[in-house]
């Protein structure tokens, strides 16, 4: 197994883990109301929402994980385009 194949495999594994983590982070966000979140009971917990600091940290982590996720997808695309298949 070549070095590029190992890097590609590691990036794919990290991508799957980050995809699951990103999904969980997005689902943890508070619903803004009037959308699908209200259909599933999101409107009931509107008053018991998280504090401002917790919501800011959740937003920050979501953006960071999303940027890393996009960077890995771009890296995998570049590997697929420019590195010949072994």
TrEMBL record:
One of its GO terms (molecular function) is protein-transporting ATPase activity. GO terms for biological process: protein secretion. The keyword Hydrolase does not apply. GO terms for cellular component: plasma membrane. The chain crosses the membrane at residues 6-27, 61-83. InterPro entries: SecG (IPR004692). The keyword Membrane applies. Pfam families: SecG. It is found in: Cell membrane; Membrane. Keywords: Cell membrane, Membrane, Protein transport, Translocation, Transmembrane, Transmembrane helix, Transport. It is a multi-pass membrane protein. Belongs to the SecG family. NCBIfam families: secG. Involved in protein export. Participates in an early event of protein translocation. This is Protein-export membrane protein SecG. It comes from Bifidobacterium choerinum.
